[in-house]
UniProtKB/TrEMBL annotation:
Entry keyword set: DNA-binding
Signal sequence range: none
Keyword Ribonucleoprotein: no
Name of the featured protein: AbrB family looped-hinge helix DNA binding protein
Domain of life: Bacteria
């Protein structure tokens, strides 16, 4: 394995799968002398979303998907009225 001009290496997919690292997950790099380590960052259980995060999750992608909504329908969607 070679380091490219940007200081990057490509880790084999099989190795990542073996240690349970999937695309999008965060890792932490460290070193001990001349040994470099890579560790998967373990996250706790998902936290409850704030009201703002819930709002964003509810309306994500609606700007182009729901152009035919009326103002009242948009306000209902934003407010979460059922």
């Amino acid at each position: 394995m070679r380091v490219n001009a940007n200081g990057q290496v490509t880790l084999p997919k099989e190795l990542l799968e073996r240690v349970g690292i999937r695309p999008g997950e965060e890792v932490e790099l460290g070193h001990d002398g001349n040994v470099i380590t890579l560790r998967k960052i373990e996250r706790g259980p998902p936290r409850e979303l704030t009201k703002g995060e819930q709002l964003v999750a509810r309306i994500a992608g609606t700007a182009t998907a729901n152009r035919d909504l009326s103002t009242d329908e948009i306000m209902k969607l934003l407010r979460g009225d059922d």
